[in-house]
Design brief:
The structure is a single chain. 73% of the residues lie in helices and 2% in strands. The protein is an all-alpha fold and 424 residues long. The protein has a domain at 75-200 and 291-407: ABC transporter involved in vitamin B12 uptake, BtuC. Part of the binding-protein-dependent transport system for D-xylose. Probably responsible for the translocation of the substrate across the membrane. The chain crosses the membrane at residues 49-69, 81-101, 108-125, 131-153, 160-179, 199-220, 241-259, 265-283, 310-335, 347-365, 372-391, 397-414.
């Protein structure tokens, strides 16, 4: 006689224990939301603000500009905004690496202009294939970063002085490379020009990116939770991971819907996000990334831990130089030319401000590549809103300066709060 359901054994897992797997219920999701909010509250009370201030600030900025001009959140303006953030945002990603070890790179603007000039002269004037000219331009940025890193790590010259000298020297070299004409126009249909002019017009591209991003985030978070649980350290429960993934999915699919209402997913934005994800993985999931963070906590402690301090410091400046070169190529792509003004103006200040406003600490040891994305979104949102309202650039600079000062003050107060609790 067959037994009833209550007499049957529960399914067992590979380890012989009873399986507790079941479908998520509404009660689980509600508990996940409560856990998520409690975790945020605990982090805020402990001084770990993370991205909360910049996200709230971005929301306030968007609400204000939308109230003043209904075209601010239009698909066209947001699509243009997604392109405007790429060039400077890529440079800011490199700045994040330098700030993580409590150093500073003031040469990134000049390096970006030099890379654009090298590419333009090689490809347009000398007829070199664009892919090869692009590779040489990027390698130029990496080599310049290595030179800066050598003087900082080996010779012991402060990074402020080295990169300030680089700002002047590489800008002069850019002017020399461009020659008397001063401006080189790029091929409108060429490889570099296509970087910011090509769109994936099919709706599946943007929605597919949103879906893939949400899935990857869930799998990475789940794997991290399992790893931490195996190591016996606190980890996020599955329901909290589900809530975080749901929030990300809502934002990602909303952004995809807006982009599809205009011309689709910009290639430049896709490349920007892929670079951020890859470098974030390198920082958070590799031994090299742990060495960078350790160095930000203190050079002497890192040296005693067996870290090759000289190499890590040089490599960080190489990353900064490489990202400056890539960003310079995207900026040149946006205007399809390289000129004597490339890399000048407020580019350097915006790149540094983006990294700091996004949450990267000037004191080292705290920050993520996503900080560059959030920070440049704030800066370019202010610029876009001001342009729509017809307000002069001087006001934009004053507002951006105020936001930067607020971010630095908040960083200092956070560090003081953590030190008082013995967490810094």
């Amino acid at each position: 006689m067959r037994g009833t359901s209550k007499n049957r054994r529960a399914p067992t897992g590979a380890d012989g224990e009873k399986s507790t797997a079941r479908r998520p219920r509404p009660a689980d999701l509600a508990q996940g939301c409560r856990t998520f909010l409690e975790d945020v509250r605990n982090r805020l009370s402990a001084g770990e603000l993370g991205a909360v201030p910049v996200v709230l600030g971005l929301v306030v900025i968007w609400i204000i500009f939308q109230a003043l001009n209904g075209a601010f959140l239009s698909p066209r303006n947001l699509s243009n905004l997604s392109l405007d953030i790429v060039g400077t945002g890529l440079i800011a990603v490199g700045i994040v690496f330098v700030l993580l070890i409590a150093e500073l790179d003031l040469s990134v603007g000049s390096v970006s202009g030099l890379a654009a000039a090298v590419f333009a002269v090689l490809s347009v004037r000398n007829g070199m294939p664009e892919w090869l000219a692009l590779l040489i331009a990027v390698l130029t940025g990496a080599a310049i970063g290595a030179v800066h890193g050598f003087f900082v790590a080996r010779v012991g010259v402060p990074s402020f002085v080295v990169t300030l000298a680089g700002l002047l020297a590489w800008n002069g070299l850019m002017l020399y490379v461009l020659g008397a004409s001063g401006t080189v126009n790029l091929d409108d249909q060429g490889l570099v020009a296509t970087l910011t002019s090509y769109y994936f017009s099919h709706a599946a591209a943007a929605y597919g990116l949103a879906a893939v991003g949400s899935i990857v985030f869930f799998l990475a978070s789940y794997q991290e939770a399992r790893r931490r649980k195996t190591a016996g350290v606190p980890s996020r429960p599955l329901r909290e991971i589900a809530v975080r993934t749901a929030l990300l999915a809502v934002i990602a699919f909303a952004a995809a819907a807006v982009l599809n209402q205009f011309q689709g997913l910009p290639l430049a934005l896709l490349i920007f996000l892929l670079i951020i994800v890859c470098l974030d993985f390198a920082l958070r999931r590799t031994p090299y990334g742990r060495q960078v963070f350790s160095l930000g906590g203190g050079i002497e402690a890192a040296r005693r831990a067996g870290i090759n301090v000289v190499w890590v410091r040089i490599s960080v400046f190489m990353v900064s130089g490489t990202m400056a070169a890539i960003g310079g190529l995207f900026l040149a792509s946006r205007i399809t030319s390289a000129s004597q003004t490339s890399g000048s103006g407020n580019l350097l200040l915006n790149a540094i401000a983006a990294a700091v406003i996004g949450g990267t600490s000037l004191y080292g040891g705290r920050g993520r590549t996503w900080s560059a994305l959030l920070g440049i979104l704030v800066i370019q949102s202010i610029a876009s809103g001001m342009a729509l309202l017809g307000i002069q650039a001087a006001v934009q600079f004053m507002i951006t300066g105020g936001v930067l000062l607020a971010a630095v003050v908040l960083d200092s107060l956070t560090r003081r709060s953590q030190r008082a609790r013995g967490r810094a």
